[in-house]
Amino acid sequence: MADVIGERWRGKWAIVTGASAGIGKAIVEELASAGTPLVLVARRAQRLNAIAESLSNADGVQAEACPADLAEPDAPRQIFEFTQQRGLRIDLLVNNAGLNRYSEFHAIDLAAQLAMVQVHCHAVLHLTHLFWTGMVERRSGDILIVSSVSAFPPGPYTATYAATKGFDLLLAEGLAEEVARYGVRASALCPGATESEMYESTGAPKADTKEFQSAKEVARRGREGLAMGKHCVIPAGPRGLTATPIACCRERRSAELSSIPTGRLI
Ligand SMILES: NC(=O)c1ccc[n+]([C@@H]2O[C@H](COP(=O)([O-])OP(=O)(O)OC[C@H]3O[C@@H](n4cnc5c(N)ncnc54)[C@H](OP(=O)(O)O)[C@@H]3O)[C@@H](O)[C@H]2O)c1
User: Fold this and answer.
1) What does R_g of the chain's alpha carbons equal in angstroms?
2) pLDDT tens for the 266 residues of the chain, in order
3) Which residues line ligand 1 (CB under 6 A)?
4) Pocket of ligand 1, candidates 25, 48, 72, 96: which has the most ligand atoms within 8 Å of its Cβ, to mutate?
5) Are 165 and 147 within 8 A, CB to CB?
6) Residue of the nearest CA to atom 41 in ligand 1?
7) How far apart are CA 117 and CA 111, in angstroms?
């Protein structure tokens, strides 16, 4: 099984958004060490160039920096054109870029909340549609959407963030069921509290970071889950800070929904 996972994207191009830090950078490093050439997307161009150079030196893989601000509505089309102009066939899209703010709804800057909707929903949908169409035609390709455990329970003080992550989860799970017959895969990765640059920037009260999972482990679990055809991966595991309440939410939701036939308009 380890070989299948390791080999799945060897020599195939992947594109990762939010590649300049945290979970995205860890996913990029995982993929590069398994021989996957990469397109790296984020706003900080200098960081992307430095990461691309270190991947080429350490793993001998080709890596292209594609700086873009996903809060700009036209960014996904520009990213798609970047790959088209270079003749890159993308076999794996990782929608990972994200931001969060913690406070009462009325106190969180409206621009930040609208940026969350743009980056987590509009850009994810737009990029997925652009790359997905070719994957379905070729009957091969994979898409990973980074959601969150926040997608399951109500999210006071991060209501907009949780709502956008709910969108990501349902988009990935819906697509996964819809296109299995084309040989294309989709998966939602739902991390719990993870070491990255995000927590500091949210304005949330100080947390015990000893409980946080490493970005490397989250990246590994996401890559394995997608390669194994899982529609949703919660990498926190039984020891994680939020794993137990999330598992309960998920079980309850599954039980409530099990009597509703899927694939119908309801
Ligand atoms: N850390 C956690 O506890 C946790 C838990 C659950 C889910 N997640 C999810 O995991 C994903 C990665 O977050 P992280 O924890 O790794 O955070 P992070 O360390 O802050 O990294 C966020 C990444 O997103 C990029 N990004 C943010 N806004 C962007 C924009 N407008 N355009 C393009 N790129 C943008 C950042 O790059 P630039 O600043 O260079 O643009 C950076 O590469 C997010 O979707 C987040 O919601 C995180």
Assistant:
1) 18
2) 555 677 899 999 999 999 999 999 999 999 999 999 999 999 999 999 999 999 999 889 999 999 999 999 999 999 999 999 999 999 999 999 999 999 999 999 999 999 999 999 999 999 999 999 999 999 999 999 999 999 999 999 999 999 999 999 999 999 999 988 999 999 999 999 999 998 888 888 877 788 899 999 999 999 999 999 999 999 986 655 565 556 666 665 665 555 555 555 55
3) 17-24, 42-44, 69-71, 96-99, 119, 146, 148, 191, 193-194, 196-198
4) 96
5) yes
6) 43
7) 10
- 0.90 surpassed by pTM: yes
Q: Given the structure tokens 């889950």, which residue do they identify?
A: 225
DSSP character string of 186-207: EEEE---SBSSSHHHHHTPPP-
CA distances from 72 to 96, 149, 204, 208, 233 (A): 16, 26, 26, 34, 29
Exposure b/e, 224-247, CB count within 10 A at least 16 = b: bbbbeebbbbbbbeeebbbbeebb
User: Ligand 1: which atom is nearest the Cα of residue 201?
Assistant: 20
Q: Is 30 helix (H, G, I), strand (E, B) or coil?
A: helix
Q: For 154, list phi and psi in degrees, rounded to 5.
A: -60, 150
Which is the closest atom of ligand 1 to the Cα of 75?
A: 32
| Phi, psi for residue 95 in degrees, rounded to 5 | -90, 100
Q: Using CA positions, which residue lies closest to atom 42 of ligand 1?
A: 18
Q: Which atom of ligand 1 is nearest to the CA of 72?
A: 31
Could you tell me the domains of the chain?
Answer: 2-257 (3.40.50.720)
Copy the structure tokens of residue 39: 């397109």
